[in-house]
Write a structure and sequence with these properties.
eight-stranded mixed beta sheet; 14 helices; 18 strands; about 30% helix
């Protein structure tokens, strides 16, 4: 679990200047604001396939690609309710981690005997993603800068120090940064040091990755249909039938890659809740502003708290700025984790002024040298969260329909692994991965409403309290830890 100390963040309300900084920002993801390929036509009428993938994000696209790579003769169709990457795949920070268990500590708390293999598989999975990106010439700004978990106090730094050998034990390159070394990497008056994991932590433009995978899938022969929401599915002969607004697809197998969106599968609905996360992106920074920050290695960063931020250079970073022209931006997100009663996933929740105001206030606290910078993009997105913090798998309708959901914010890298594992499960493949408890076990379900809403809200309150009390976890959080429900934001 993350540590904490007395919060360094302001307890006052955000100022009017904080709010003005994003007042004219585009209300949508930066990644989705560029030129996109022409949309694929919606499904009309009835058709057939060997496999239907439901969901046009990273998990669904990887599933379609891997299905054709594994068996070029398999007829594969993918349907997406709106447009490709419109969900969590287009609303994240572009961090691509090798971790399949949301961090080694979380994995050890749940499947300690399987962590060595899972870490190995995670690193191999990341290399396979890199191979496809290179071989298919996918222009998604892939970088391998590593990631730094930042200490905001000496207490945090002491806890991070314990993680260095643990990372090295499982095949990672990691180094502890003291205050001076941290300042040399990224300059903030708040930072007391950090843990730089140099391996297994990459960054990408997630939408350009999705678009590149869709192009590759099309060349492999995958039929893609956007603006095609699934209305339901049922048995059909030896396979299944997916019903849509204007037609249907009968197939031998169906794979659900629906993330936070509701589907008619009780095992998923009871275990996945949509939690909203919010992000700001700055205008291009000047050469002087980048020099005041450093950040020449362009690592992704997060702070080591229960309620944490994640942040990184994008759009070329410091290399894009010259003495004469601004260039490169900063992405700053996280901290809030908002759950709406009943698990509603609605477009209106993508814009939450209170979250943007808090993000802006804390951004200028972390980087006072950037006072006056404006934000050009603001957005929110729903993360498919489960109680174990990483994806889980299963089937229904006598094995005709499978799923991979619950990535809890680390799906950019894990999506390919999850897609491949889900295909193994659907195809009845026996191997070292399908035999793992990681694969077979399910996360603890969330309680039904209205208890669910109360539990989530109270837990968020207790996590914030722990951050204000030197990381000391009260009775409620300690109880959740003992039950294997160690929530963080």
């Amino acid at each position: 679990m993350r540590g904490g100390s007395k919060s360094v963040w302001p307890e006052s309300e955000p100022s009017e200047a904080d709010r003005r900084s994003y007042s004219d920002a585009e209300p949508g993801p930066f990644w989705l604001s560029g030129q996109r390929p022409e949309p694929h036509p919606p499904l009309e009428g009835d058709s057939e396939a060997d496999l239907v993938v439901v969901g046009g994000g990273l998990t669904g696209l990887w599933a379609a690609v891997r299905a054709k790579e594994r068996d070029p003769g398999r007829e594969v169709a993918l349907i997406e309710r709106e447009s490709l990457a419109i969900g969590a795949s287009g609303r994240n920070g572009g961090f691509m981690s090798s971790s399949l268990v949301h961090g080694i500590g979380n994995g050890l708390a749940r499947f300690p005997d399987e962590v060595p293999l899972l870490e190995k598989l995670g690193l191999e999975n990341l290399e396979e993603i890199g191979r496809v990106i290179r071989e298919q010439s996918i222009d998604c700004d892939m970088k391998k800068p590593g990631a730094i978990e930042v200490a905001l106090s000496e207490t945090m730094l002491d806890e991070l120090a314990d993680g260095v050998e643990e990372l090295r034990k499982y095949g990672h390159e990691a180094v502890l940064l003291d205050a001076d070394a941290m300042k040399a990497e990224v300059n903030s008056p708040l930072y007391r040091g950090g843990l730089w994991q140099k391996s297994g932590e990459w960054t990408v433009d997630p939408v350009r990755l999705c678009d590149g995978l869709a192009d590759y899938a099309g060349r492999l022969g995958v039929r893609i249909h956007e603006s095609t929401p699934m209305e339901g599915f049922d048995k059909a002969g030896a396979g299944g039938e997916v019903r849509t607004a204007a037609g249907s697809i009968r197939a031998g197998k169906v794979l659900l890659a629906t993330a936070a969106f509701k589907v008619p599968v009780r095992q998923i609905r009871s275990r996945v809740i949509p939690v909203y996360d919010y992000v700001l992106v700055t205008e291009p920074l000047t050469r002087k502003q980048w020099d005041s920050l450093g950040w020449q290695n362009q690592q992704g960063l997060s702070d080591y708290s229960n309620q944490f931020h994640y942040f990184r250079p994008i759009d070329g970073g410091p290399e894009a700025a010259t003495a004469d022209s601004p260039g490169g931006r900063l992405l700053w997100g996280g901290y809030d984790a908002i759950y709406n009663f009943g698990g509603r996933v609605e477009d209106t929740a993508y814009q939450r002024d209170r979250s943007f105001a808090g993000l802006a206030q804390r951004f200028f606290t972390a980087f006072p040298q950037l006072e006056g910078v404006r934000f050009t993009h603001r957005w929110g997105g729903a993360i498919d969260t489960c109680s174990r913090f990483f994806a889980f798998y299963g089937t229904t309708l006598d094995g005709r329909v499978g799923w991979a959901v619950g990535h809890t914010g680390l799906g950019v890298g894990a999506s390919r692994f999850s897609a491949n594992l889900s295909l193994d499960i659907l195809d009845g493949v026996e191997n070292e991965t399908t035999r793992l408890q990681y694969t077979k076990a399910k996360p603890v379900p969330f309680p039904p409403e209205p208890l669910r809403y109360g539990v989530v809200q109270f837990t968020r309150n207790r996590l914030a309290a722990a951050d204000r009390k030197d990381g000391r976890r009260g009775l409620w959080l300690r109880t959740l830890d003992r039950l294997g429900l160690g929530f963080d934001s």
